[in-house]
Amino acid sequence: MLEKREKEIIILTKKLENDYSESLPGVKNLTAQENNLLSEKETLQAEKALLKENFAFEGYEASNQVQRLMDEANTLQQQLESLHIQKAKLELQFERKKQKSSERLNKMENQKSELKQMVEDLQRDLEAKGDEKNDLLELRMKSWLHGCNIGIGLHIGFYEMVSNKFKIRRISAGLHSASLFSFQPWFLCRRVYFVSSFWVLNLERNHMHFRNLAFLERIFNGTPFTVFTLKAIEPLNLSHKTSKTLEFFSFCKKSKRCGFTILALTIRDSVTKN
């Protein structure tokens, strides 16, 4: 639409230049005629003066000739006035066309600015809706986590990175329940690209494995996925009678459609001794 407006502006500009080019020769022609008539009038006035000087010698015939010349002078004066009127009309028409074209140009410029502002507003609205969607997903996750109830308390802090976007962000969530899974802790990993969630991690001493590989492959659009292993710095012990913090580092095979890497994972067993 902006290109269309610019083309219309160019067309109006050319039209204005053409109107000016067409009117200019007419104005010049009328000016030349005016000058010629003035020159001719001066000549006639000179002849009139000469005839007046010789009036006594010419008699009745000279008087008639003077009258005829006076009539011609009056006629020429009327023609001159008519040319002045025509010239004024042409100048007025030219000014009106020029003003109208200028108003159209200003209107198109304003419309162009309004369209640009609308595009910027829509872009901001789109970004705001994207942020609202992410906030809603995070709120739903937190609501689910707070609704759980179990004796084992875990704190998870991990990072996720999309490689081709060079974007790293930290996600922290409190997990307080795993009663549906026989007191085995489960962690929530969230993908950035397709905004999907999946539950992983079954603790077995010092390794963590995906529990449902078929579900995981379906989430990653059929991309084969190997078992995801987290190696502990020290043997894992999450007994109900201990309270300790373990640090983990992990690696994960990257999907063809989405680069996903967990850089660090911290687990704190906050259960007190019975």
Summarize the structure.
This protein has four helices and nine strands, in the order αααββββββαβββ. The chain has helices at 2-53, 55-58, 60-146, 213-219, and strands spanning 154-162, 167-175, 187-190, 197-200, 202-204, 207-209, 230-232, 244-250, 261-269. It starts with a helix and ends in a 5-residue tail after the last strand.
Structure description:
By secondary structure, this protein is α+β, with helices and mostly antiparallel strands. The protein has 2 domains: 2-122; 147-269, no CATH class. It is 55% helix and 19% strand. It contains 4 helices and 9 strands, in the order αααββββββαβββ. The strands form 3 sheets. A 5-stranded antiparallel β-sheet has the order 2-1-9-8-7. A two-stranded antiparallel ribbon has the order 3-4. α1 packs antiparallel against α3. The protein is rod-shaped. The two termini are 73 Å apart. Residues 144-274 have low confidence and may be disordered. Keywords: Coiled coil. Residues 27-139 form a coiled coil.
